[in-house]
Write a structure and sequence with these properties.
Distance between the termini: 34 Å
Number of strands: 4
Bound molecules: flavin mononucleotide
CATH superfamily: NADH Oxidase
Number of domains: 1
Structural class: alpha+beta
Order of helices and strands: HHEHHEHEHEHH
C-alpha cells in the first residue's frame, strides 16, 4: 500500500513514502539486511560520539526469541506486531561512558540512530513501526538489561502488507491518510510563535 506524505515540496522519496505499517507481509527479512539496518543506526551522530544506543533483536527464524520479545510489548501492539518478522528493543545509556555523568542527550541520539535505521529500511523496501507501548520492566527482566540503561521503544520491522490482513478497526486506521501540523505551527523566526517568511 502507498501512503505518501501529502506535500507539494520535493522531499526525498524515501521520506515521502515512509509510513508506520501495522500490516506486515508474510515474508522473512534476510539476516544480512537486518545487519544493514543496525549498521546504518551505528553510524548516526551522537553527543561526544558516546553512541548511547543499544539494540536487542529477535527474528521469526528463532520463534522462541520472537515470542519472548513480543511478550515485552503491550497487548494492543502485540495484536499486530506479532506479524512482523523482526522485532527490536531500543535501549539508551543513562550516563556518558567516559565521564559517568548523566547523558541528557541519549534519547536524542537514539532517535537519530532510528532515523538512519528507518531510511536504510526504506532503501531496502522494508518498513518499521516504532512502539512506545512496551512493558519496560518485563523487558529489563527478560533480557537482563542493566539499571543504567533505559528501555525506550520496541520496533516492528518487515515488508508492509495489505491492510485486509488486519482486524477491521486496525485496517481502517491503516488506510487513513497520514497527517502533519503545518510548518507555520512548527517553525518560528524572530520570536516564538512568529512564523518564518520563506
Ligand atoms: C517514539 C514513538 C512511539 C510510538 N509508539 C507507538 C505505539 O506504541 N503503538 C503504535 O501503534 N504506534 C506507535 N507509534 C507510531 C506513531 O503513531 C506514528 O509514527 C504516527 O502516527 C505517524 O504515522 P506515520 O509514522 O505513518 O507517519 C510510535 C511512534 C514513535 C516515533
Amino acid at each position: 500500500m502507498d501512503k505518501p506524505a501529502n506535500t507539494d515540496l520535493p522531499i526525498h522519496p524515501l521520506i515521502r513514502g515512509r509510513y508506520s505499517p501495522r500490516a506486515f507481509a508474510d515474508k522473512a527479512v534476510a539476516a544480512g539486511d537486518v545487519t544493514l539496518l543496525l549498521e546504518a543506526a551505528r553510524w548516526a551522530a551522537s553527543c561526544f560520539n558516546d553512541q548511547p544506543w543499544r539494540f536487542l533483536v529477535a527474528t521469526r527464524e528463532r520463534p522462541e526469541g520472537h515470542a519472548k520479545m513480543l511478550g515485552c510489548l503491550v497487548e494492543s501492539n502485540q495484536r499486530w506486531a506479532s506479524a512482523a518478522p523482526v522485532l527490536l528493543l531500543c535501549v539508551a545509556a543513562r550516563n556518558f561512558e567516559r565521564s559517568g555523568k548523566a547523558n541528557a542527550h541519549a534519547r536524542h541520539d537514539l532517535g537519530l540512530a532510528m532515523g538512519n535505521l528507518s531510511l536504510q529500511a526504506g532503501a531496502l523496501g522494508l518498513s518499521l513501526h516504532i512502539m512506545a507501548g512496551i512493558d519496560r520492566e518485563a523487558a529489563r527482566a527478560a533480557y537482563g538489561i542493566p539499571e543504567d540503561f533505559d528501555v525506550v521503544t520496541g520496533v516492528a520491522v518487515g515488508y508492509a502488507g495489505a491492510p485486509d490482513s488486519l482486524p477491521a478497526e486496525l485496517a481502517e486506521r491503516e488506510r487513513a491518510p497520514r497527517s502533519r501540523k503545518p510548518l507555520e505551527e512548527l517553525v518560528f523566526a524572530d520570536a516564538w510563535g512568529e512564523p518564518r517568511r520563506a
